[in-house]
Amino acid sequence: MSITVSALRETAAGERRVAITPEVAKKLHGKGVRVLLEHGAGSSAGFPDASYGDAEFADKDQVLQQADLLACVLPPEDASITRLREGSIVVGQLRPHGAPTRIEALAQRKVTAFSLELLPRTTRAQAMDVLSSQAAVAGYRAMLIAAENSPKFFPMLTTAAGTIRPSRVLVIGAGVAGLQAIATARRLGAQIEGYDVRPETREQIESLGAKFLDLGVSAAGSGGYARELTAEERAAQQQALADHLKVFDAVVTTAAVPGRAAPKILTKAMVEGMKPGALIVDLAADSGGNCELTQPGERVEHGGVTILGPLNLAAGAPLHASEMYARNVYNFAELLIRENSLQPDFNDELVAKSCVTRGGEKIFAA
């Protein structure tokens, strides 16, 4: 077998996913690719070593020395980068924005590195889109967290003790995470509304059985993202939103753009205008949060309102998150493997635009 594809056990705090699952290992082996994993690489995700079939296992140093392509969920540790074999390839979520030291280290090691967050948001790239697959997990889990922490039931209940009205829930942001959060709230029986500054999302929100909250502000942008609001538009949005927030029992915010600080949508004054017992789950806490009061990874109580800022939500459902992520990686790896060797075609837009380092050269300006 002329190519060795590898993965390490992820070491970031709370990270339980793995970049290569038994399913993907089997597919790679079927293509004549050797799969070499660190012992226990998939254990935290629910994949013991014995489940990997024909894959081989070794310690971390041996994996780094032999890997032609190293797949990762989060960026390798600095110590691992210095031990990568020169000329090897790294594929994963490398978080290149604002990470010049990491990019410099990869370049010095003459590693060709591909950061899957940089893939163009095109139809062809969907099968490799780790942002979308992991956002779906995060949106699902964010709504479960909201339901668990709310002082109210989400569904309507008719009991001998009387009828309990359903909770009113608002999801801000109708990207992949927001839509999955809306769908989950519907399954839980809540009365759900969705808001996004992109008017084209109305149809998607309503298709899930939710009501579209129209605040009269449109910020249709390009590449699937909203454009930045003007000061006047932001003021109008915030005033309209503040008026509506008073009726909701739970709010899940999901507005984020990779590489940028999350937009501040919920102000302190808005939170103070919400009903006692209301709950905010800020899915954008990793990038600073959509709420001014969000503390990443913490629970904040303010004026009777609870604000939660959970981090790395996808890692909380590691088995299915890993399965989707590994398929994304496999589909991207197929672009790199030709004639039983690694031959990235840099004329391919998906390959070129996701590349951050190449043979000692820095491609991406961190």
* % residues in beta strands: 15-25%
Q: How would you classify the helix and strand content by structural class? A: alpha/beta
Total beta strands: 19
Strand order of the largest sheet: 3-2-1-4-5-6-18-19
- Uncertain parts: none
Q: How many helices?
A: 11
Q: How many structural domains in the coordinates? A: 2
**Could you tell me the radius of gyration in angstroms?**
22 Å
Query: If classified by CATH, what would the architecture of the largest domain be?
Result: 3-Layer(aba) Sandwich
Described by strand count, sense and barrel closure, the largest sheet is: 8 strands, mixed
CATH class of the largest domain: Alpha Beta
What is the CATH topology of the largest domain?
A: Rossmann fold
Question: What's a concise summary of this model?
Answer:
With about 375 residues, this protein is of the alpha/beta class.
